[in-house]
Amino acid sequence: MTASESDGKAQIGVTGLAVMGSNIARNFARHGYTVALHNRSVAKTEALLADHGDEGTFVRTETIAQFLAALQRPRRVLIMVKAGAATDAVIEELAAAMEPGDIIIDGGNALYTDTMRREKALAARGLHFVGAGISGGEEGALHGPSIMPGGPAESYASLGPLLEEISAHVDGVPCCTHIGPDGSGHFVKMVHNGIEYADMQLIGEAYHLLRDALGLSAPEIADVFAEWNTGELDSYLVEITAEVLRQVDAATGEPLVDVIADAAEQKGTGLWTVKSALDLGVPVTGIAEAVFARALSGAEAQRRAGVGLAAGTLGAAPTDVAGFTEDVRRALYASKIVAYAQGFNQIQAGSAEYGWQIAPGDLATIWRGGCIIRATFLNRIKEAFDADPDLVSLLAAPYFREAVTAAIESWRRVVITATGLGIPVPGFASALAYHDGLRTERLPAALTQAQRDYFGAHTYGRIDKPGKFHTLWSGDRSEVPV
Ligand code: NBP
Question: 6-phosphogluconate dehydrogenase C-terminal domain: from which residue to which, for each copy (predicted)?
């Protein structure tokens, strides 16, 4: 539908006009849509109209009744309020006044299980509910985010064209597609954020190594990241890392990064990703290490207590600056491949658990632009899933297999050097351990199974015959089939 088909009423309504909502409303308006505006307190609506009212056609409303009356039927309302109780409150207010067939879209960072609950409740009232993950921060919201809508296919038929139009585009392809039913959109957005945590942690470790193993300054490291951004690591996060490292603090004249307190905060989507991965039994070690590394950085009392703990004297700083820098680049790339492989495994597991039929290749496509983890590398992921939609691990795809083969020695050197020097690299080291775990023919899990059978009669399988077995540990130690 285009604005010219409008009957004077708005094609879309946005309620919740803080930074994200107002920018998405402007994005719709800039694309020619008539946008009904609503916010709990009218001040934000007024501010948007005063500052950007000339960017398109907006309909100012103060009450939910006015807001709904301003919309074409079936109504399409995008909620952009704080996730949690506020979202439930707004949904309830809207649903009470809406009619069957109307569509409520939650574009906030909702927990996917909340979205599943809301979708079910609203479907019972004849309303369509679409949980849409939106990534890209405020800039993305305005200029084109990556959008991950779940919900009924029928809603997407009506809503999809609008969302695709305002999303980012890469090679003419929108960074928006229907993910699957109910909570799938928010689930995928959650894992996207988890991968973002892992990516940022790995970049942080690369920076730490260049700073403390090589003694490079922030501007020197900025140059390294800018150079890396021209190759296979080309990505939004690497690009902004270079910019951030170049920033000088006006008050002290020092690099800004050197005067920022080193305690990382988190809003919760990384934690949700790890909790969900634990429930699904998927090892997302890269994301978990990233969440825990942020927690450690903020553990003030423990860090104070840790000052002066033993360092050891095994390490010698690398003398080949260019060589070690290249090693770090390769270790970063290989670790990043692991983090994405794990994240995609979680999405496949979630999809199987809930029957969502998510196409992983589609995600690689819509994450190429607009979102925080956008990267050239996602084209390679898309190609891998195009070649094999049921790919069980990205690490097994030919391109990534070769990339890791090219990186493996550098990766090991970096972990060895970091360990020798006492520089923590939980992301690099756990990614390498995961890789080694996957390729190890005989894992020590056989011993774990024997121990479990010893103390709990939990039984074990054998490599030479089918079935389950138990050894009579407290008897004659003969083996019995179970
Ligand atoms: P906030 O998450 O800061 O939420 C502020 C908005 O929620 C305001 O419009 C506020 O209305 C409204 N609100 C609250 Br708080 N409680 C309400 C209630 N009980 N009833 C009605 N409205 C209520 O805004 P944001 O940073 O723009 O984010 C919006 C959503 O998008 C969030 O879910 C967020 O997680 C998600 N998100 C944010 C980003 C980002 O980069 N910031 C990126 C991706 C997704 P008021 O003006 O009357 O107080």
Answer: 185-474
**Ligand 1 and 338: CB distance under 6 A:** no
Asked if residues 92 and 115 have their Cβ atoms less than 8 Å apart, the reply is no
Mutate to test the pocket of ligand 1, among 20, 92, 167 (most ligand atoms within 8 A of CB): 20
Is 275 noted as a catalytic residue in this protein?
A: no
More confident residue, 312 or 405: 405
Residue nearest to atom 40 of ligand 1 (CA): 137
Ligand 1 neighbourhood includes 91 CB (under 6 angstroms): no
Do residues 230 and 204 lie in contact, with contact meaning Cβ atoms separated by under 8 Å? no
* pTM metric for this prediction: 0.95
Question: Measured from the CB, is residue 480 less than 6 Å from ligand 1?
Answer: no
Read off the amino acid at residue 340.
Answer: Y
What confidence tier does 466 reach under pLDDT thresholds 50, 70, 90? very high
Question: Which residue bears the tokens 């995008």?
Answer: 78
Structure tokens of 403?
């990339």
pLDDT of res. 308: 95
Q: Does 54 have pLDDT greater than 60?
A: yes
Rounded Cα distance between 375 and 202, Å, is 15
Backbone CA torsion sign across 189, 192, 198, 199:
negative
| Secondary structure of 149-162 as H, E, C letters | ECCCHHHHHHHHHH
Contact 23, 37 (CB under 8 A): no
Q: Is the CB of 90 under 6 A from ligand 1?
A: yes
Return the residue whose CA atom lies nearest to atom 19 of ligand 1.
86
